[in-house]
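Researcher: Good morning. I'm working through a list of sequences from a screen, and I'd like to move beyond sequence-only analysis. For each chain I'm collecting a predicted structure so we can compare shapes side by side. This is the next one on the list. No need for commentary yet; just the structure.
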Amino acid sequence: MRYLDHAATSPVRPEVLEAMVPYLTRVFGNPSSHHTAGEAAADALADARVRVAQVLGMRPGDVVFTAGGTEANNLAVKGIVLAARAQGRRHLVTTPIEHESILESADYLRRFHDVETTLVPVDDTGRIAPTDLRDALRPDTALISFGHANNEVGTIQEVPALAAVAAVAGVPVHVDAVQSAGWLPIAGLGADAISIAGHKVGAPKGIGVLAVRGRVPLEPLLHGGGQERGRRSGTENVAGAVGMAMALEIADAEREEARSRVGAETARFIAGVRESVPSARLTGAPAGDRLPGAASFTFAGVSGEAVLLELERRGVVSSSGSACAAGSDDPSHVLLALGIAPEDALTSVRFTVGREGLPGDAPERLAALVGEAVAAVAS
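Model: Good morning. C-alpha cells for this chain:
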C-alpha cells in the first residue's frame, strides 16, 4: 500500500511508542493520586508539559492536554468566547475554510449563546488578507480563530501579520496548528492559543494539546476533578502526553530537513500528475506558501470518489478532503470558498505525503498511477 493521506493521520513513530510503554505498564498510577504510584505519573506528566511548551514557545502552565485536535479547537473557540461574554464581547471572527471543529463550534455559540460570527473571505489560494481581517473586527470581538495551514489544500497563512492586526485591536488569536505542527515553526507566531493533535506528528490518536497563554480567560468545557489547572477535568492520558512530547521534539528537530526533502519530492509528483492528466488543476497556494507534502487536485469531468476507488485498486490510498467530513455528498466547503464551482469541487482528490517521503522513482510512478486512474474513470 502506498499511503498518501497523512493529513488524515500518520503512523506512530517507533521512538514514541517506546517512550510510552512504561506509562502503559509499570508506571500506571493516576497523576492526581497522592502516593508513590501517582507521583511517578505526575512527574512524567509535568516533564511532558515542559517539553511540549518548549516546542510551542509557551510556558508549561499554558499547556492543556486534551483528547485530540478537535477537542483542543472546541476548547479554544468555545472556552475563550464564553469567558469573554462576561465583558460583553459576543463576536467571533474566523474564515470559511476552517476545519469543521472550528466552524461547528462557531455555530454552537450562535445557536445557544447569541454569539455572532464573521467569516473573513479568502483569495483563490486560501489566503487571508490582513486588511480584510482588520475590517472584520469590532469593539465586541472576543476571538480570532484560523488554521495555520489548511487541512485540504495545504495553504499556509501569514500568522505573524494577522496576529499583528489582532494585537492592535486587543483581540486574542487562536491558531489551529494541527496540520502545520512538525512542518512549520510554531514558536514565535504571536498566537495566544495553539491547537495540535498527536496523530499528525507521530504520536497516537487520542492525545492533543491546547496551549493558551495565562492572560487569556478560558471557560472549561469539561467539569469534574479540576485537572489541568481547572481548564479540562478528567484523568490525564499520561502515556499519550509523554508520546506527544517525544513526537513533537523529533518532528521539530527534523523539520527543516524533512520540509526540504518532502517538498522537492512532492513537486516532482505534482509535475508528473500535470503531465499525466492535462486537465488536472492544483488547488491552493503555490509551492513555498503550501505545506511541503500537500497536493490537492481537481480533475474536470470525472468523479473524485471514483478516482479514489481506482487508485486504491492500484495500491494508492488518498482522500477527497478532510477525513472528518468523509461520507458527505456535498462539495468541499474549502474549495467552494476558493471560488471553485461545485461540480469541479466534486472531482477533487487530496494527496498528502508524510515525513518519510517518497523514495526513488516513487513521485513519477505515483503520478503515472494517478493518470491511469483518471483515464479509467473517464472511459
